Amino acid sequence: MSRDNFLLFTPLLHEVAASDLDITTIVNPIRKMVRRTEFIAADVNSINLIEQTVTIAHGVDRHIHILGYDHVVLALGSVSHFRGITGLEQNAMTMKTLEDAITLRNRMIAHLEEADPDCSEITRDATLTMVVAGGGFAGVETVSGIYDFMESAVQTYPNLSPSMLRVMLIHGGSHLLPELGPELGNFTGDKLVARGIEVLLNRKLIASTPNDVTLDDGRVIATKFVVWTGGNTAPAQLAQLRTESEDARVLTTRTMLVEGHPNVWALGDCARIPDSNGRYYPPTAQHALRQARVLAENLAASLHGQTTRELSFNTIGQMASIGRRSGVAQILGYRFSGFTAWFLWRTVYLTKLPRWGKRIHVALNWFLDLFFSKDSVQFMSFRAPGQGIPEKGSSDTLESRASASNSQGV
């Protein structure tokens, strides 16, 4: 069972937000991928480990089902961890779901539409200030996508220019992309700065309001646009199994059985799976793919009373796109940067995307992107159903339209 009836290819999520790819190119219908499996599109409300049941909400009216199990596999992923920062959860966008990417794209366009008229001249600077907090892979790729899109789209607005844009990346460490080390991290920072993105290192966001963010050095940045990519944690449904680590992932054995539960398995972003060196596998797609294969074999072996095997896999490498046909990569210990890394990034992820039809669509989108500017059409209206001309004395602002959009969903 899954909340969505599709599999989302998250490595390309920022390209949907940046209008490099169409929405449907990075999703695959689950029913087409697992035709011999009974599938239920539902929310997992809770898991009862004692009674061995899973409570789900299903259908338009979200009616409740209670399903029993002999074995259960936990692959609930992760959710954004706001680290208790004042106002952040209420005011920041995230980049984890397809809905997030659509919301981010719509908000970028809404800010351009808000800033263009002469009546917005006083608030224009704050409206065109975009802040991304968190300098890991998600943050770097998101801020690059935002800048690419805004720089291209702003040219269609007569009262705006690229020089009015202020795109910022805030990171608490001494260099970006800590997973790749200081050399590639500093290269990435230099590339972003050269393009016009402000990179603030050794700085943390400590508060957020609808109109500004506050940093730990006391600086207040006027902005209505904040994206948080600064951390993840296990979802609330796994509270009874969470560890006390910062990411609260579920601790398993090397065979991916949850500690203390002989019929509960876990993998992916929600699991802390130890490797042979006593460390834990990182929550990345390449590891999740290997985990899935081994877990499936172990589950089948367990059902037949056979011996299970331990997961053993070494990280092949990690890559990131930093915009304008430039990237960074570390593959089998070798480090690449620039166009070579970017081309490698696109090639690898194109081959990893499920189903040939989707690969062809993505390749075609990338080819057309070489010749045409980005499309600044919103995927959905920021005006709520039935909302006409505002009554006298009411306000029709960016905030009210964004609130209406969020209440509708995607």
Automatic annotation (TrEMBL):
It comes from the Bacteria. Residues 395-410 have a biased composition (Polar residues). Keywords: FAD, Flavoprotein, NAD, Oxidoreductase, Transit peptide. Residues 317-375 form the External alternative NADH-ubiquinone oxidoreductase-like C-terminal domain. Residues 5-292 form the FAD/NAD(P)-binding domain. Its EC number is 1.6.5.9. Transmembrane segments: none annotated. The keyword Transit peptide applies. GO terms for molecular function: NADH dehydrogenase (quinone) (non-electrogenic) activity. Residues 388-410 are annotated as: Disordered. It catalyses: a quinone + NADH + H(+) = a quinol + NAD(+). Belongs to the NADH dehydrogenase family. This is NADH:ubiquinone reductase (non-electrogenic).
